[in-house]
Write a structure and sequence with these properties.
Helices cover 45% and strands 18% of the residues. The chain has 437 residues and is an alpha+beta fold. The strands form 3 sheets. It has a 6-stranded mixed sheet with strand order 9-8-5-6-7-10. The chain has a two-stranded antiparallel sheet with strand order 1-2. The protein has a two-stranded antiparallel ribbon with strand order 3-4. A hairpin with a 4-residue loop joins strand 6 and strand 7. Helix 4 crosses helix 5, helix 10 packs antiparallel against helix 11 and helix 14 packs across helix 15.
Length: 437
């Protein structure tokens, strides 16, 4: 059965014997693609640009905004412009005033209508609003991708033919500070099977420019989701276990009562700081960090052979096999690279927990690559900046980098592959500590 009329002249076929009233039918959205192609073709034929002053998108956006403002006023008053119903009404239109707003496609001026009683509060272009939401989102997105305030101002001037000051860009990006503080203080899960921690150095001005560590923690939840738990900036002087204790205590105060495995680099004193917060945590030195540090003590021509023999150590099926492989390694390289052997002996206590786990968990913790990938994004975001004027500016960029999602690329947050299999293994290993029963 077919219905015609009442829906923009469209013919609707119903797979039923009962005719539904038009009020219960969902109206189909208009097909705008043909209309858009027609407009673009017409603009191109007349030499009209898409953006900029007098451009097609600029004019259309202005007309849409203007029409929306007029519709808001009509809804506010209860009658349209020129409607006889408005004669003698206590509140009527009372002219308008021009207002310039910035949008994603440039600046434009709209006429904001006024009412005689001064009660009209427009929504689409609110009072004191000079930028539409899309403009702010575009600025924040560019900032998160590593562009400086000067870069963004120049980009908007070139692409959208609108003058934007660096101060305005800073004002827009300052909007995220409240969100950042809320994010940094949010409550966390009671238990995390795995937490990865690391630090990155940034140049920040403190009277003079100095290197300051930013401490980063990524947690893997019981649902298999990676999440950046927090970012903290420490004082100048390099990464320190004492500062890590402060950061880890913050995580505990935000709700983390237990962590099964903490994967970290080989910083002296860090295992003790971790166990102060979570006494039962298994501290695992990042194997990739350990191998990378090992190569610092070897000549380049030996890198391939050293890395291959170290693989036999950390891929050993048991602790006894790993100890045997390492003794062979020490016998082969100890005389030539004694510092390399000392590095592994000093790190052995934090390395060997790795050997107690089945392959599924080993793959999860043998490296802090998840956090290394995030640090690589951080470095890309700060590379063009040289140094930051203050601590908040630095943390703001890192926070936006955490929140930014890139298509067709692995992101710092997201679900771990094959998590159900890993969770089964974690449950057999840590039992009631996970609190799943």
């Amino acid at each position: 059965m077919s219905l015609a009329g009442g829906l923009g002249g469209r013919k609707i076929t119903l797979m039923t014997d009962e005719i539904l009233p038009a009020s219960e039918l969902v109206p189909l959205p208009p097909d705008m693609s043909g209309f858009a192609r027609q407009l673009v073709a017409q603009a191109a034929g007349q030499g009209v640009q898409l953006t900029g002053e007098g451009g097609l998108l600029t004019v259309l956006t202005r007309q849409v905004l203007q029409a929306a403002l007029e519709a808001e006023m009509a809804a506010h008053l209860g009658f349209e412009r020129g409607d006889p119903a408005g004669r003698g009404a206590p509140n009527v239109r009372n002219g308008s005033y021009p207002k310039t707003v910035r949008t994603e496609i440039g600046e434009m001026t709209v006429d904001v209508p006024r009412d005689r009683q001064g009660l009209f509060e427009p929504v689409i272009v609110a009072k004191h609003q000079r930028r539409l939401a899309g403009f702010d989102e575009a600025v924040i997105s560019l900032y998160a991708k590593g562009m400086t305030t000067g870069d963004i101002a120049a980009h908007l001037s070139e692409v959208y033919d609108t003058d934007v000051s660096r101060d305005l860009v800073s004002t827009v990006t300052e909007k995220v500070v409240a969100d950042m503080r809320s994010w940094q203080a949010r409550p966390l899960d009671r238990v995390y099977p795995v937490v990865l921690i690391d630090a990155i150095m940034l140049k920040v001005r403190e009277g003079t420019v100095s290197n300051r560590p930013v401490y980063v923690a990524i947690g893997i939840s019981l649902d298999g989701e990676r999440d950046v738990l927090g970012l903290w900036m420490g004082p100048s002087g390099g990464e320190g276990a004492k500062q890590w204790l402060t950061m880890l205590s913050d995580l505990k105060n935000r709700g983390i009562l237990d962590v099964c495995i903490v994967c970290c680099d080989g910083l002296k004193g860090l295992p003790e700081a971790i166990r102060t917060c979570w006494p039962d945590a298994h501290v695992q030195t990042c194997v990739v960090h350990l191998v990378r540090n090992s190569l610092r003590y070897t000549q380049r021509r030996d890198w391939k052979q050293v890395a291959a023999e170290l693989r036999e150590v950390y891929s050993a099926p048991s602790l006894e096999a790993a100890e045997f492989s390492f003794e062979l390694f020490a016998e082969r390289w100890g005389q030539k690279y004694p510092a390399l052997i000392r590095l592994w002996r000093n790190s052995w206590t934090e390395f060997i927990p790795f050997l107690d786990y089945p392959v599924e968990i080993r793959k999860l913790i043998y490296t802090t690559n998840g956090i290394e990938s995030l640090n690589a994004r951080f470095r890309a975001a700060v590379r063009r900046r040289g140094h930051f004027p203050d601590e908040q500016s630095a943390l703001k960029v890192l926070y936006l980098t955490v929140q930014h999602r890139e298509k067709n690329r692995a992101n710092p947050t997201g679900r771990i592959n094959n998590w159900s299999q890993i969770l089964n293994t974690l449950t057999l290993t840590f039992g009631d500590r996970l609190g799943l029963n």
